[in-house]
Amino acid sequence: MALPRLLVRALHRAAAAAAPAAPDFNSFVTRTNTCGELRAAHVGQKVTLYGWVQYQRQGLFLVLRDFQGLTQVIIPQDEKMPTGDIEVKAETAEILNSCKKLPFEIKDFIKKSEALRMQYRYLDLRSSRLQWALRLRSRVVMRMREYLCNLHGFVDVETPTLFKRTPGGAKEFLVPSREAGKFYSLPQSPQQFKQLLMVGGLDRYFQVARCYRDEGSRPDRQPEFTQIDIEMSFIDQAGIQRLIEGLLQHSWPEERGSIVTPFPSMTYEEALAEYGTDKPDTRFGMKIVDVSEVLRGSNIHFVQNALSYPHGSIRAICIPQGVRYLTNKDLGSLKESAKSQFNQEIMEIICRPDGSLKSLLTKFLSEKEQSELIQALNMQEGDVVLLAAGEHKQVCSALGALRLLSANLLEAAGLALRDPTAFHFLWVVDFPLFFPKAENPTELESAHHPFTAPHPSDVSLLYSDPTKVRSQHYDLVLNGNEVGGGSIRIHSAEQQRFVLEKVLKEDSEVLSHLIEALEFGAPPHGGIALGLDRLISLIVDAPSIRDVIAFPKSFRGRDLMGNAPDYVTPEELEPYHIQVSWPLEEKEAKKN
Amino acid sequence: MALPRLLVRALHRAAAAAAPAAPDFNSFVTRTNTCGELRAAHVGQKVTLYGWVQYQRQGLFLVLRDFQGLTQVIIPQDEKMPTGDIEVKAETAEILNSCKKLPFEIKDFIKKSEALRMQYRYLDLRSSRLQWALRLRSRVVMRMREYLCNLHGFVDVETPTLFKRTPGGAKEFLVPSREAGKFYSLPQSPQQFKQLLMVGGLDRYFQVARCYRDEGSRPDRQPEFTQIDIEMSFIDQAGIQRLIEGLLQHSWPEERGSIVTPFPSMTYEEALAEYGTDKPDTRFGMKIVDVSEVLRGSNIHFVQNALSYPHGSIRAICIPQGVRYLTNKDLGSLKESAKSQFNQEIMEIICRPDGSLKSLLTKFLSEKEQSELIQALNMQEGDVVLLAAGEHKQVCSALGALRLLSANLLEAAGLALRDPTAFHFLWVVDFPLFFPKAENPTELESAHHPFTAPHPSDVSLLYSDPTKVRSQHYDLVLNGNEVGGGSIRIHSAEQQRFVLEKVLKEDSEVLSHLIEALEFGAPPHGGIALGLDRLISLIVDAPSIRDVIAFPKSFRGRDLMGNAPDYVTPEELEPYHIQVSWPLEEKEAKKN
Predict the structure, then answer these.
(1) Nearest Cα to A229, choosing from A477, A584, A532, A23?
(2) For A1, A95, A100, A324, which has the most beta carbons within 10 A of its beta carbon?
(3) Could you tell me the pTM of the whole model?
(4) DSSP state of B263
């Protein structure tokens, strides 16, 4: 750490460059320039730099580092001439602090374990990778704010994070209060508040909202995370979509190219049928193809069996050049994965160099059927097809998972499948409003949340056949990741009460304040939330959301730097009227 | 709630007004104008408005309200002509939702209890008062962001709110984790993180930070609140002050006039001596005057007694026109208050219409002494002087409190003392670094927090006489309210360890990560935090910070709308390994 008062030394002189309209990093301090700023145009000027000593050699020269870059500083001796247009000749230099041996060097190419990086997070933050990610994040959010507030009249409203447990809010952290037995809850989103703001006539709300979710140990999830939270009155689905497209276009960082709007849109049914998921990665093909009709006439037992059920279906994906890029072990693991995760058998068909098919199936298929299959799947020589028969949703989900696994395998083997600089946004719409509960399919649960409005065309079905009702929910997908979701909300108290009490069989009492609010002239309204951590991690191409969060928790929810969570004394628990129920073995251990 | 498709009706035609560079409130929706927008220039245009029906009369006309204003809508009958330049002739109108009888009318002049307003907060939010406050708050914060990010290169970094208990953090809420006995803590400020960001080379950090403080029931405090949190590397006290002055000037709302910079500055000692507080209200005079020297020669026992002590002092304030504006009861209550709050006797001196003094003291004072007293206090006919003798700090504190109480009494009685539109900012500097602990004056505690750096001139005193060390802490005061505070921090690990271990006798182990960080080349750094809720409440002249928070808690920390905190079931506590320790009487009640 040094503060050299320095003189820029001339190698050759050049005209002063035009100053860019950048922020002034040197206001309020005695610094004249950052370490990334000096150019030939500054030759001859006196400058004051602050930074960390990155290298130094025998008291002859040193390289000073800050968040913007590196500058070489000569400690005047003889007239030595290193490379580079500029070097700074030290007039005075002051050491402001010393530095003990670092646990790892601040260089991007030095490999270090994530646990070590998280323990010394303040050192990892000095890396150009994290500096870039955090500064880009700040910049993107600022431009989002400008778009929403300055251009479109949104009001940034802060909503409480100490609230009460929502029904079924099993993933909400609790905060004991000083009233015995009473707890606050840290909400998973400002959902209720944003709707109440619309009832309150705020018209257009947004917030960069801190949200909380206690999921125990989950890789790449954080107990606290951030969403861009938006709600508007008198808006429809298309309006929200245009808003978000404009928002992303406006805030997109220049160094990541530009994005094209409007984003394509796909129904939930289409996404499931073609990609086997509600968050399709549309950067590559290998779509799921329905071959039920091709095989319907064949004399294959499992095919006939599958098609005899109401939702029976035969589907397949075609892996381009699978013969070349996938090993037998790869194919085995793909089939194994479908079996273990989806209980789905997979049949394999290979297109030989001569164009003929190799498979256990071929002997049951006529030449016409084989040729129709090749055509339906657009099979080329060397391609591998994975085929599944069974219930529609199961078949699609299994093939969707295999599609992604094979893409990873192909890329690992050297096939350039997905453009790493491409950003494919996609709207997924027309979700079902309700799903049957996994544990008891005769009961229904909300596909998203109970405030989602039914699709206008399906309102009457709500009262006759709620399973058939599509919702006005929409998801925003980027490169196969869900980066946002929202809906038009129910604004009729009567409809909201019907959904809660009659369809979901829930006790509406805990939401009585919200239902009552709808009775007081609630405007039609809708909104969306973007997952900021995920979005930024995709923009900077980071492997984890932990790489775009300044002080992330480990996947066990621990802060490895400060050691949180931690034990507290029984006295500290007293004002909150709680005590620890030690698990039996720890209790025993304490006794002894 | 109605959506009328309407035709603006001509009363007289006018040229189209130039569009202001305001945000577009009508983007993405089918609205063409808000209800506050239509002017004579719009005559003849077709418009679509959305809003709430404020009045309606016999199906003849209605007044539509939204966040921007009111517009009169005529339901065409005959050619009726009400006042106003514009009325909208309804072509179609659609009722989007109905409204049951409101618990109170949405009119600012209707008085309602705060409990009722908080229970129906979403209705209170419709008031023009709250709409203005929340929208102004959003606008001010946006301009602060523009100033910090766009003009001065700050990085908006989000820091965790699930952290671990800080030593002595008795006011921190606890959050049980799934590890038995381990708790997160909701921090009172991002203090540690902001310093670690400087160690991490972020250079200039800011955040609109949610902070938490569990103080039980306190009027006009909130369990969660917001601060504008700032930290900079390589900065000194003057630099931070200029930054904040620029920030406030840049973000100051036009409708509240403008503010003058630089702000005046006062040392802690001066503030205490002249105003009896570290947050002087400098909008009016009535300063505390030292009359020790005037009275030193007098033969008054309590005066002589006070002056015989090392910190003994005789001080007074002069209440202008106190004879006219203060009743005997007022004067009695002022003296009573000094007695009960500060154990301080107060002597009263009245300046008669003829300029002579009336007081129990006068018979002990020579004419010269009386005249010197009149001069020192600048007494005019009809003024009332309150005089106190005793220990310096106690005398000043008591008179400081009386100064504010008398100002309120004078104003209540009709004297215009403080300009309600004036904003008097003030820096208070040179605080002591440590105070003796109230419960044990031989031990020291930090006046602010243990990371505050000593004043550069007093560093050597740290090791010899720490009570004499001034700090590099600074408070920002507005109209007698503390609206911000910060300091230059200790950046030497050795000095930080000395302060924690040797001066404060604290266990530095819990802060080992911070001290270790200082060892890794921490730059000199400092920062500040502005209390946003308080600042905005002063700007909009609201009686409470609850009036600038969308969903505030009651002074008991309760959300009266959603009923938080609330009971949870023992099953919900199970994953967190805690159980409620019911107070004895409630336990007994449960048994029976």
Answers:
(1) A532
(2) A1
(3) 0.92
(4) P
